[in-house]
Amino acid sequence: MSSSAALLSPDSPRVSAQLKQEGYAYLPAVFDSTLLRALERECDEMAARHYRVENIDRRAVYLSDQTPTRTSHAMMLSQGPSPLPTVSHEGLEAVARFLRFHDEVLGGLLGAEVPASSRSMLNWQTYLSGSKPVTEHFDGEYIDYRKDEDGGFTLHEGLLPRLVVILTLSNENQGECQGTVLRDTLTGKEASPPSRPGDVLVFDNVRMRHRVPTLEQPRRMAGLRSFDFQAVHFARTEASRRPGANYRRMPEGLVSEDVDAVAVHQQFLRERWAQVREAQRAEGALF
Ligand SMILES: [Fe+2]
């Protein structure tokens, strides 16, 4: 981390206030170029080590999105052993540091220590010029979703991470929109914070939806979010509510903060995942 990181302690009151007020916090130049280059290399190493059909089958690695102008990878990690599927990042110091940073930000902002067993999804994406846009969405573990005709999808049930942490690795885009566009579901207001190499964007993934429009120039990013630690349960309608949990209404549906996210995930893996994976196979999406 650069010296500015010390001034921007993840749980600092300024970050917390900005997040509460705006739904996101923009932290410029948190990581230096040495860390960024190391993280790029280590992400490639993670793909080489773990992008295997058996890891996708056990839900430790998610299907990669590969188009000529955008490549994306996603894998589950934790600092210590987890009862849920993960892949190892042993010996990868930059990945370990980014994960610690995420867990500190999350714990600091939620006022509780993130256990070492708590997993986060690490994803990294490369956008080339004229990249295929990413339609607006919440990040999450999608337990039930339906594809829409416009290429997007509607989430019916899922686990939403409270926060998403995005780190820009490289970016040649300048001007108004350099990457992620956030939309506040409460006010409809959009924001597009700068995305310079080393910048971190932390956003409230329950309040804000996000998208990435077509980018004119190349950009690389890495992100982390926890599906386990205080993730909220999302139900589009009453039918997907979990018994005994309290829900509040939000524009897209209902959310509950008192559902055990790990238990929901374990049940999903036991009862539903095989069927979802079978459907992926039927579509030819082996890996
Ligand atoms: Fe996303």
Can you walk me through this structure?
- Helices cover 27% and strands 32% of the residues.
- The longest helix is centred in the N-terminal third of the chain and has 18 residues, at 33-50.
- The protein has a single domain, classed as q2cbj1_9rhob like domain (Jelly Rolls, Sandwich).
- Residues 1-8 have low confidence and may be disordered.
- It is globular.
- With 287 residues, the chain is of the alpha+beta class.
- The relative contact order is 0.17.
- The protein has 7 helices and 16 strands.
- The strands form 3 sheets. A 7-stranded antiparallel β-sheet has the order 1-11-8-13-4-3-2.
- The site of fe (ii) ion has 3 residues, from loops.
- Fe (ii) ion (FE2) binds next to loops.
Largest sheet: 7 strands, antiparallel
Q: How far do the termini sit from each other?
A: 34 Å
CATH superfamily: q2cbj1_9rhob like domain
Rounded Rg: 18 Å
Q: Can you give the mean pLDDT?
A: 93
Query: What general outline do the C-alpha atoms trace?
Result: globular
Element-level helix/strand string:
HHEHHEEHEEEEEEEEEEEEEHH
Read across the widest sheet, the strand sequence of neighbours is 1-11-8-13-4-3-2
**Estimated helix fraction:** 25-40%
**Topology-level CATH name:** Jelly Rolls
**CATH-level-2 architecture:** Sandwich
Count, helices: 7
- Share of β-strand residues: 25-35%
Features:
alpha+beta, 7-stranded antiparallel β-sheet, 287 residues, 27% helix, binds fe (ii) ion
Mind sketching the topology for me?
Blueprint: H1 3-7, H2 13-22, E1 24-27, H3 33-50, H4 53-57, E2 61-67, E3 70-78, H5 93-110, E4 119-127, E5 134-137, E6 141-147, E7 153-160, E8 163-171, E9 181-184, E10 190-191, E11 200-204, E12 208-212, E13 219-226, E14 232-235, E15 248-250, E16 253-256, H6 261-271, H7 273-282
Antiparallel strand pairs: 1-11, 2-3, 3-4, 4-13, 5-12, 6-7, 7-14, 8-11, 8-13, 9-10, 9-12, 14-16, 15-16
Helix pairs in contact: 3-5
Bound molecules: fe (ii) ion.
